[in-house]
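Re: export button greyed out
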Amino acid sequence: QKEVEQNSGPLSVPEGAIASLNCTYSDRVSQSFFWYRQYSGKSPELIMSIYSNGDKEDGRFTAQLNKASQYVSLLIRDSQPSDSATYLCAVKSMGGNKLVFGAGTILRVKS
Amino acid sequence: EPEVTQTPSHQVTQMGQEVILRCVPISNHLYFYWYRQILGQKVEFLVSFYNNEISEKSEIFDDQFSVERPDGSNFTLKIRSTKLEDSAMYFCASSEALGSDLQGEQFFGPGTRLTVL
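Workaround output, generated via the alternate export path:
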């Protein structure tokens, strides 16, 4: 069974701080990795994708991938109250199209 | 910005009835998906669809479910003889063909909340 694990949280950070969200996955042939943001009652919104080991930056967001450790993370710099949401890690295996989601980490940014 | 649309936003049905959930994927996308999310649980893959046929399906996607692309824009999920446990948010998603630089980024619609009574 291919699993994607996340700490459920909640992770509470003060406004302006860096939020660090982590995800591990069990399938070694996983190829593509995605972070989605989901506000309560809404659909997942894609915020980052990463395919190669290392860091990928997009604005206030940085995704980090370490395939040897089967670990992917998301850093949110200068956290804002509007960043408060559930962050979903999703993994796609080689040769398939489906995304396997983690249960999500609840992030709360306190003003 | 192009987006995936879904109708209806909320569907209430009686157990045993059939429902059809509708989606309009992003216009230049070629892969289409259905996922569901039971309240408080993970987003779960149901099925992917490419070139007018199912390319992958999960164990959840049994004979009760079917998908169709009836025309050039719509993509539908039919649930026959609904059960109480089918109550969930159903999300449609779409992606560009694999092999593009975007490597299968999937964009989700707003969802249909299905309530089976």
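The two ends of chain B are 37 Å apart (CA to CA). The button fix ships in the next patch.
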